[in-house]
Design a protein that fits this description.
With 255 residues, the protein is an all-beta fold. It is 0% helix and 53% strand. It contains no helices and 19 strands. Strands 8, 10, 11, 13, 16 and 19 form a 6-stranded antiparallel β-sheet that branches. Strands 9-12-18-14-15-17 form a 6-stranded antiparallel β-sheet, with no helix packed on it. A 4-stranded antiparallel β-sheet has the order 4-2-6-7, with no helix packed on it. Strand 6 (65-73) and strand 7 (79-85) form a beta hairpin. It is elongated, with a radius of gyration of 24 Å. 26% of the residues are buried.
Length: 255
């Protein structure tokens, strides 16, 4: 519901003043306009303006959205600038979602971690993980078993879930595993255990094959063969590590 004003700078390198008309085009997800569509620029001069962008309430695609600005002056070829607006997909409403129903069942999870004490339970559909890990290479990655009825088809764009890191700063990752053990991983980066709830979207094209897992013959994540999901982390400095995960689902966005 907000309008974002983007600086727009027009240069003219000619020897005479130029009357310039500025137009802007954007993909359906955005509304775009310029504050002043007609300006006069002095010889070898510059005019600073503003380009207003707002969400059009169309569905947002799972990719950057293009904006095109064109400046025209009589007797000169048009000048064009194209840029892209990226979106935090966790803040975007999906066009369609498919909940992973198994994520609400504790029996479908298999806790997995480096040596130490680990607690795991599912309450009200939320997986709650707590650990006090021994020194060394610390990690916690509980695996969720995914059956055929919970898998996405090729039309889906990625996975969405809500994670609440509660204690221990960690490098969090999401992994998807095929039946032969081939694993694809995407990183969320280092996340502090600050108790803040985060809605996260990871697109399938952000996953890459994990070289420590069995080789995948086609070197490609097959959505209809996903057999496992894990959402966890590597707390390098902190022995105590707690976080919660809920609302695991596959999502698709606009075309």
């Amino acid at each position: 519901g907000e309008t974002w004003s983007v600086p727009l700078r027009l240069y003219h390198f000619g020897k005479q003043a130029a009357k310039v008309t500025v137009t802007v085009e954007a993909e359906p997800a955005l509304k775009a306009s310029v504050k002043e569509s007609s300006v006069t620029i002095d010889p070898e001069g510059r005019v600073d303006g503003l380009l207003d962008l707002a969400w059009s309430e169309e569905k947002m695609p799972a990719r950057p959205v293009r904006v095109k600005v064109t400046a025209k002056a009589d007797g000169m070829p048009p000048c064009v600038a194209v840029f892209r607006i990226s979106t935090e997909m966790g803040d975007v409403s999906a066009a369609e979602q498919k909940p992973v129903k198994a994520a609400r069942l504790e029996s479908q999870w298999a806790p997995s971690s480096s040596p130490g004490k680990v607690g795991f339970l599912v309450a009200n559909g939320e997986a709650i993980i707590s650990a006090e890990l021994d020194p060394g290479d610390r990690w916690v990655y509980p695996w969720l078993k995914v059956g055929p009825e919970d898998r996405p088809d090729a039309s889906y764009d990625g996975i969405r879930f809500t994670i609440t890191p509660q204690e221990g700063s960690a490098f969090h990752h999401v992994m998807l595993r095929e039946p032969n053990g081939a694993t694809y991983v995407a990183s969320l980066g280092q996340v502090p255990g600050d108790g803040k709830e985060r809605k996260v979207v990871v697109l399938f094209d952000e996953f890459h094959w994990a070289g420590y897992s069995p080789e995948d013959k086609n070197r490609k994540l097959d959505l209809d063969a996903i057999g496992g999901i894990t959402i966890g982390g590597n707390p390098k400095e902190d022995a105590k590590f707690r976080y919660k995960v809920k609302d695991v689902e596959w999502v698709k966005f606009a075309e």
